[in-house]
Amino acid sequence: MLSIKNLTKVYPARGGAQPVDALRGVDLKVEQGEFFALLGPSGCGKTTILQSIAGLEMPTSGDIVIGDKTVFDAVAGQFIPAAQRHLGMVFQSYAIWPHMTVFDNVAFPLRHGRKRASGEELRRRVMAALERVKLAAFANRPAPHLSGGQQQRVAIARAIVHEPRLLLLDEPLSNLDARLRDAMREELRAMVKELGITTIFVTHDQVEAMGMADRIAIIDQGRIMQIGQPEQIYFSPRNAFVANFIGRSNTVEVKVTGTETSNGRTLQRLAAPMGELVAVANPNVSLGDEVLCIIRPQAFVLGGVDAENRFEGHVVSRSFLGDHVELDVAIAGVILRIVAGPYDTISVGSRISLSIPYQRCVVVARDRV
Amino acid sequence: MTELREQGIGRRPALRTGPSTLPQALALVGLAALIIGPLLILLRTAFLPPDSFPFDSWTFTGQNFVQILSDPEVPSLLLNTAIYASGSIALGLLFAIWLAWLVERTDMPGRIAIRVAMFTWMAVPPIILGFGWILLLNPGSGVLNGIWTQFAGKPGPLTIYSMWALVFITGVSVTPTAFVMIGGLFRNMDSQLESAGYVHGGTRMSVTRRILIPLLMPGLLSVAIYVFIAVVQTFELPLIVGLTARIPVLSTRIYLLSSPDVGVPNYGLSAAFGILLLAIALMLMLLYFRVVGAGERYKVVTGKAFRPRMARLGSWRWPAAASAFLLMFIMVMPLLILAWTSFLSFYEPPSVAALSRFSLSTYTQVIGRTAVQEAIVNTVVLVLASSLATMALACIVAWLSARGTGWMSRALDMLSFSPMAIPPIVMAMAILLLYLRTPLYGSVAILIVGHITIYLAFATRTMSSAFVQLHRELSDAAMVSGAGWWTTLLRIVIPLVWPQVLNGWVWVLAHSARDLTIPLLLMTNRNMVISTVTWTLWDVPDLPGAAALSMLLVVALLCVVVPVQVWIGRASSRG
Predict the structure, then answer these.
(1) Count of structural domains within chain B
(2) Are residues B329 and B473 in the same domain?
(3) Of A368, A335, A367, A369, which is closest to residue A242 (Cα–Cα)?
(4) In Å, how far are A57, A108, A134, A202, B221 from A92, measured between CA atoms?
(5) What's the gap in Å between the CA of A76 and the closest CA on chain B?
């Protein structure tokens, strides 16, 4: 449905500053009907990607194809303006036009867009869109007389009323308060799935991305770090950045010392500062490589009896956070962050033994600096 | 194949996300014809041999500039201009700062009335103020001199025809402009900055000296330079007062050379003086931008609503209010004497006895004249056409330059802003030279073209600052919804900045109605407007007639300006 190839964007140097590489070769494909999230810290380039898809930003090179139509091709000098791309978009500020009623806001794409409707047809489709966001009763209300959550619904109705080929959402939940955000997250996903519109969704919040998207692209410094389903990204991060951005991780510097097969699985032996670790093998690293081993704080089994990856340490600090307890455990001089349950009574200074199942240790290459 | 690819890459910079190239190119060509065309002719004329016309020959000579440099009067001309401008600024700023502080930062009674009066002052043409002041300060018969004589028993020493009187009158007349700008400075200052000073042990004196004044200084300096430019360019008051007083300044010299009472116009020398004035104005403009800085020019107002600290005046409230209203009274005095004069058939100083001779006969007589009726029609056509066309052009240009990228939108921005540095008298001169031998000369249309050119800069500036403050996503949303740049401008952007559009429109309308520069330089007996007719009546002299027509103009403008200002005030407090 959407295919982006080798997209780059360079903002020219201004006032003595260096040129800024906002995008450095982005490739991605989104399938028909998919709910796809672009996730990354602020300034990573995710909004630039969305704006390039919308036609609000001119990439420097690469090409973008929506459906079977090339909307941007730097080599051929082709650029279809935003108005002709037939998209729907929900903006971060919602961009509800305050001088119009709710009805007029939603009717705008049908009145002035590519595929127009009028009269009874227009009314029917606008009301259907408002019905869908449960705002039919507010049709004649002036747009400024709405709460934040209602404004967001109007923005959604406006973005879907003309049945766009692609729905773009730019941090749609970031301006809502926490409680409303949780409710809208599920509602938005349910609605988009029901309509079957291919949706691209930009967010910096990993919970939103995990909870809503079919697939996620993790972006950092203008590059895609990893694309995959939420579980895939969580359990098998491709590098330390992804591991730390999605959830938290202990990152241990290790060296590959051996490879072996056990129960049909290929494992790698690693020399870590606190002793030897066994992890599921990463085929891209070889014997003798200096690599990283990533262990989630939730991966530890306290007092475990496994033969592999057994360690003893003492608790350096403990913070009680209600739903869980965070422990810093020193093992042979290395401090590891461990999450325990609130009912595990472990005090600071006590010695504990723990084990890490090898499936929960992920080997990644060191980031090239 | 490779060639094709290279062509493709070569074409790439032409692509942009905003409006397409065609409307931008059209706007650019239109602006260039409007602004650069006359200036080129002006330049050509300045290098013309004496006693010839712009299109007559191809000879270039620097003779006019040699004449200016060797003219012994030129140094005193420049000195006069400098003294006049700096004196008026000093006085105008003093009044404006005092009033703005009282209105914006104290609990003085009657602040709202003063603010409204200052904002509607644009409805009062400077030439009318000049007439009024002459009636008040005339050496022999001036009203203030008469009062002096009654009390002191000897003739009053006041005279309108002197440098100090010119400075005083101009200072008073720039006060409202300076007030509006300085009031904005006071209003937008975050009072937390002052509070922080008090909390950390500062006294009122030290906070004012160490925090308030340093913070306001850059703003005040930029206002001062801005008003200085306006005064150097001003023409009407030096014309009415300065000519009789024999205080020539640059702007009146340009006029006299191109429209002398006796003899042939010396367009070449006049144009050379025009270039000189233009150069001075340009240098001041560069200085202005240095002071203001690029950031300030497009300062985006934050949504934060500051509640400025109001100084409590206590027992000083009434003396303060008295001083403010005295100042207002001084400003209104010339209007009062004109109103008085307009009800009399023959001018006489105010007295109870003269009240019995009050009648509306002057008004009926003035309105009865065919020339005046024609002038009224011409004026209505002129102000409506020039204000509507200016605003339409300003909206399109500001929008194209705000949302476009690349060199064309930058060129649009600069070109539309450049008339700010071109003194109206120079522009009028240039337009005269360009159209002198075309059928357009002598028509109302040429006045419309002139007013569009000189007011475009202000209108574009107003609109682009309005557009910059508009959240970008509001227009992006329309584009993504499938609307082109024109629909977006018309349906989304203009309705959202409607108060600013109206504000700009009423400003252009009022200035177009009160302007004497363009109509006077381009005057023939076919394109008289109210300002030129008033000037002619005054010259006759038919003082009551001129006064009656002035009052009609002021009242008509007030009828437009006041309701619009009130509406804008309501609309912006609602938003």
Answers:
(1) 2
(2) no
(3) A367
(4) 16, 19, 21, 10, 39
(5) 5
Tens of pLDDT, residues B455-510: 998 898 888 888 877 888 898 899 899 888 888 889 999 998 888 899 899 999 99
Band (A177; pLDDT cuts 50, 70, 90): confident
Helix (H/G/I), strand (E/B), else coil: A83? helix
Give, in order, the Cα–Cα distances in Å from B432 to each of B441, B449, B518, B519. 8, 11, 9, 10
Which residue, B123, B110, B230, B128, is CA-closest to B178? B230
Kindly state whether residues B275 and B377 are assigned to the same domain: no
Structure tokens at B389: 């066309």
Q: Which of B8, B482, B487 lies closest to A76 in CB terms?
A: B8
C-alpha distances in angstroms, B114 versus B102, B194, B439, B570, B574? 10, 25, 47, 17, 22
Q: Which two tokens stand for residue A84?
A: 């002709």
Q: pLDDT tens for residues B391-422?
A: 999 999 888 887 776 778 788 888 887 887 78
CA distance, residue B469 to nearest chain A CA (Å): 14
Residue A75 with chain B: CB contacts under 8 Å: 5, 8-9
Domain shared by B446 and B562, yes or no: yes
CB B473 within 8 A of CB B439: no
Using DSSP's 3-state secondary structure scheme, residue B125 falls into: coil
Contacts of B227 (CB under 8 A, 6+ apart): B89, B92, B93, B174, B177, B178
Which residue on chain A is closest to B403 by alpha carbon? Answer: A56
How many Å apart are CA B534 and CA A186, to the nearest integer? Answer: 73
Residue B458, min C-alpha distance to chain A (Å): 26
- Report the CATH number that the domain containing residue B417 is assigned in CATH: 1.10.3720.10
Q: Please tell me which of the candidates B9, B20, B474 has its beta carbon nearest to residue A95.
A: B474
Nearest to A213 by CA among A197, A232, A230, A235: A230
Are A102 and A143 spatial neighbours (Cβ–Cβ below 8 Å)? yes
Statement to judge: residues B328 and B251 lie in one domain:
yes
**Residue at B1 is within a domain:** no
- Asked if A56 reaches chain B (Cβ–Cβ under 8 Å), the answer is yes
Burial of A175: CB neighbours in 10 Å, binned 0-12, 13-18, 19+: middle
Q: What is this structure's pTM?
A: 0.81
Range of the domain at B522: 21-59+362-575
